[in-house]
Amino acid sequence: ALPFPQAREQLLLERRWWLEDAPAMHRTRDETLTVRGRGVGVRRHRPEPAEGPGLILYFHGGGWCVGSNDTHDGI
């Protein structure tokens, strides 16, 4: 029943405990990709300093109405 901005804040507060135990990353970078003329926020994590192949792409299936990269970063 909350407007989206307040619902996002509430969800982030509820997820704080979950995010505290997330693995440490060597480097994290937020970027924006343009998809069909719209900006989509992405977060790139590198767990180790080594460069090389490998990619895990995580798609959240909720449409990001309330959740965000911040609320689901621990996954």
Q: What value does the average pLDDT take?
A: 84
Approximately how much helix is present in the residues?
Answer: 10-25%
Describe the main β-sheet briefly: 2 strands, antiparallel
Q: Separation of termini?
A: 26 Å
Radius of gyration over all CA atoms, rounded: 14 Å
Q: Structural class per helix/strand content?
A: alpha+beta
Total helices: the number is 1
* Beta-strand content bin: 15-25%
* Biggest sheet: strand arrangement: 1-2
Tell me what the structure shows:
A hairpin with a 2-residue loop joins strand 1 and strand 2. This protein is α+β, with helices and mostly antiparallel strands. It has one helix at residues 4-20; strands spanning 27-35, 38-46. The model has no long low-confidence stretch (mean pLDDT 84). Helix content is 23%, strand content 24%. It is built from one helix and two strands. The protein starts with a helix and ends in a 29-residue tail after the last strand.
Task: Summarize the helices and strands and which ones pair or pack.
Blueprint: H1 4-20, E1 27-35, E2 38-46
Antiparallel strand pairs: 1-2
Short description, anyone?
This protein has 75 residues and is an alpha+beta fold. Helix content is 23%, strand content 24%. It has 1 helix and 2 strands.
Notable characteristics:
single chain; 75 residues; alpha+beta; two-stranded antiparallel sheet; 1 helix; 2 strands; 23% helix; flat
